[in-house]
């Protein structure tokens, strides 16, 4: 596995499939308002040997915020039950391209996993290559996972308030432009419209080529327009999923130190004391 690039091509994964230390993870998740089920999609068809990782289930149970990072004890327990453990190499994918797979990639890295890649183009790229698939549930053998949290890859609300007040970080917001500007409502009810002061809108969809694969390094540099060189980079979005897509793309540019604001706009936009800028009338 080439650990310099966080992406792996479908053909390369196909050649590795069946290796005793390889574990493939289906991270399919559909956003608010989408009636589809990631688990149902997995059961209908998935890469052979894959296990299903539910970001809503493997999450902090003490908060109402969506799919927040759980503590290391809970994470280790859930990894063990999925047969994901120490000494394994991981490849994560989505049924619809690259979306929640980036979130699971980030979660695994936060919890200390070193060899984690994302399938470039996701399941569509896999099936387009006529690689094998299977259906139904799986029964993985338990494996111990030693979680060692890398706190530098996560930001909480208090830390973000400090960053915004001091202006000592470059904050990239992955939401669509209309939500970033405040022209459109958020898909989750009860959230204010707008953006964090000083944040830069970098829509997550911009990091992909028309075929659904991630853009190459030169094209990504054009997307980030120099922001990738900032000393401190933090990605945010609606609920901490597409922010991880930006972190993944920046990792392709060698920035493996990008932090993600876990609560993102689901938290920031819900709190009356959060400073917000409206750009819809700019």
Question: How would you characterize this protein structure?
Answer:
- The protein is α/β, with parallel strands linked by helices and 282 residues long.
- The chain folds into 2 domains: 7-149, 3-Layer(aba) Sandwich (Oxidized Rhodanese, domain 1); 152-268, 3-Layer(aba) Sandwich (Oxidized Rhodanese, domain 1), CATH 3.40.250.
- 29% of the residues lie in helices and 12% in strands.
- The protein is built from 10 helices and 10 strands.
- Strands 1-5-4-2-3 form a 5-stranded parallel β-sheet. Strands 6-10-9-7-8 form a 5-stranded parallel β-sheet.
- Helix 4 (100-110) packs across helix 9.
- The N and C termini lie far apart (46 Å).
- The model has no long low-confidence stretch (mean pLDDT 96).
Short structural description:
With 282 residues, the protein is an alpha/beta fold. The protein is 29% helix and 12% strand.
Keyphrases for this structure?
282 residues; alpha/beta; Oxidized Rhodanese, domain 1; five-stranded parallel sheet; 10 helices; 10 strands
Blueprint of the fold:
Layout: E1 7-8, H1 10-16, E2 22-26, H2 38-44, E3 51-52, H3 72-81, E4 89-93, H4 100-110, E5 116-119, H5 122-128, E6 154-155, H6 157-166, E7 170-173, H7 177-181, E8 200-201, H8 217-224, E9 233-236, H9 242-252, E10 259-261, H10 264-268
